[in-house]
């Protein structure tokens, strides 16, 4: 599962992005990977581990909603039927 959100540039700043990925791990758990930063610049990568898919999916939805409230727009979604 993968979501890509972008924020329009303000002034002379480069546009910002947030990428949220949900991946199964080798031990039966799930990992939420958050990558964010300016397009063409440095990025930050954070990983959160979850024991089950339901809690990982809830965290992904919460992170998505948080970014939408901050002015980001969903530009790409893969492997998900999440409402926009």
UniProtKB/TrEMBL annotation:
SUPFAM superfamilies per the UniProt record, alphabetical: WGR domain-like
InterPro entries cross-referenced by the UniProt entry: WGR_dom_sf (IPR036930), WGR_domain (IPR008893), YehF/YfeS-like_WGR (IPR049809)
Residue ranges of every copy of the WGR domain listed in the record: 1-73
Pfam families registered for this protein in UniProt: WGR
Protein name (Swiss-Prot/TrEMBL): WGR domain-containing protein
